[in-house]
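Q: My labmate handed me this sequence with no annotations at all. I'd like to see what the chain might look like in three dimensions before we decide whether it's worth expressing. Could you predict it?
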Amino acid sequence: MTSVAAPGLDDRHWLNRTIMRAVSITVFGDFALVGLSPSLHSPYFWRPGTLMGLGALGLVGVAVVGVTFRSGTDLHVLRLITYAGFVVTLVILAAPKSGAPPPGAPWPLHPTVIAACTAPLCFPRSIAWRWVAALATAYAVLRMELVGWPVAAVDAMTLVVGSLAVASIVGLLRSRYDEVEHSHQEAAEAAELARVEVQKEAERAWWDLLIHDKVLGALLMASRSTTPNVLVAARALAADAIDAAQDAATTQHQPRGGENWVNSLESLADNLGLHAVVAVSGTAAPAWVAAALFAAGTEAITNAAKHAGVGDVLIEGTQGNSEVRVRIADEGRGFDRTRVPPGRMGLSRSIPGHMSSVGGSAAVTSAPGKGTEVLLTWREPKVESSHVAVWDPSQAMPFSFVAASWIAMEATTGAMHQTTIANGWLEFLGLSMFALGAVLIVTHRGRDLSLIGVVASLGALAVLIEAAVPSRYPDGGLWFAGATVPLVVALSLSHRIGHAWSLGGGGFAIVVVMCAARDAWDFGAGYEAGAQLLMFALLGTVVARSLATAAGRVRSASKETARSRSAARASALRIEEGERRMALLTDVAVPLLRRIASGAVVTAEERASCRRAEAATRDHLVADILVDDSVRTAAAEARERGARVVLHASGPGDKDVSRLQPPTVRAFRRAIALLLLTCGPGSDLTARWHPESSSHAGTIVVGSPALAVNADRLAEALAATARLVEIDDDSVLVELNALPHWVHDAEA
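A: Here is what I predict for the chain of 748 residues:
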């Protein structure tokens, strides 16, 4: 099959836009952190180098944000951030220093972190990790001048872990994007398959119309061609049937009605001399359902024009993509359904058959003098998506490992600043609360426990700040603020956005307020440590919203895929059965039609053959569920012996059951075949299958059997099926009990 483009997605634009937005938010946060860094104004760093670095970072930030606002999706522009971060760090490292080192982290920390985290987004993997290693090394050397190599090494490792976390999140986004793309591709291909199968089904529908309108009429006329006038008419009908068969075999017929089935039915009513009162609301039904509605509605309106004796017909109801309910009614003379001949295929086969072919149903209600109502209904079946739409961090990526590593690095940094935490019960309480909150949040044990985790984490921040001894390096003294960041990310990515903002915003407020309230701390130190919580809450929200959008697209595409494939499978089964009927028609009816149309003399034997062929063809049209090889052979032999045989099926029995043959159906067929053997000249057998009935699912009545019925063999044929059997000298009655489990059998 030709490849079909996936709808709704263009390359990786959706994913790249998400990344660009996240980076732009980070750039804004970076400028704020750099501006408040105490080391920015320190004479320790060479002033011209600082100004050049800030200028370069500003130009790069403006470029990235500008591309983002223009809905740009080229991630190559992000390489400028990596280049600028590395160059700025090298310049500050190589520039001359003067005076005492400033407290806290040097201001190049923030652009270096962003540069390292951006590298996995815009470079191939092998090159990206080289950049991360280069940035971590340069920063470690710069940091080593201030705090010594152990702390510098831990800081560099923390930077690498942060890059790993970003790479993991982006890997998640890319895998989700691939899942969405795959789902849309599947949906497009399934829709194309369904379209092809619906086209093929339209071909079979034309064949059914041909059998009904042409072939059966020609065979019936030929069976009665005992006078020259009737014979001439039979030859004309036979020639017309053969021409129509050849045309149907070589011409592709489009499904009639289509999405404009309501207008088509209104036009049909007008052409038949009826005034249609139309009140159908809602959005368009699926194409294959619309075709079935048009076909069933055509039968209903045609019957109204022929038999109702009134000039108006009502078409009302609602339609949509998942449910349809349409009522076609007239106030004509009506009829008694119990007196309708089995051969009336409009009621017995066409109307319910068209709807059941798409999984719908049709109910015909009528009574003499009270008009007729046809109710057509369809509801989209519930389908299970083949894709998981709810994301679990522990399944999508090793986030628990990343979070644990992140927290460990931050804790190591804090521990290496000797006196940053006072000993005592307050320290133990804060660490215990932090550990509890981390476990409840990262393991995602439910929303209630997650909320407890948020409260515990916020309490831990307050307790640890109170227990901390202010040091010369606030970034180490406030390590627990950085350790809380992965908890904010975990909450955001698992769609606990409210909890993420509670922890991020609440944590920011606690850190800033409590640091400002302590004499040895200041607002700048608190802001620098707490702002990352707020920034990552915002970043996590952007990413989570994108994940939710992707999940919605997955669900929609998977649902459409399942629906299209279901329709395609149903169509394929109906086509297979239609081809089987056409093969039978070609073997039996077409040779007879050709001989009649040729002008040859029609013998009595050929007229009898036409009667048998017409009856056998009608059996397949009105009672196909009852006709297997044994019933077909037995019915043909009984008719040759002069018996009258009528087979009829209705309701759910019209469904294709080539794969679905409940034991009751098979037992009913065996009983029909056995009783047909008892029929001879003057006998008649009527078998009706109506599993929707609340009284009995099937009946067989045999009048004037030529041979005695073997009760033991009949009981063996019916097996354990619940039934009523009455055998007299001149009649046989078999009734099968109602089948409340029929639908269950058909769906099993």
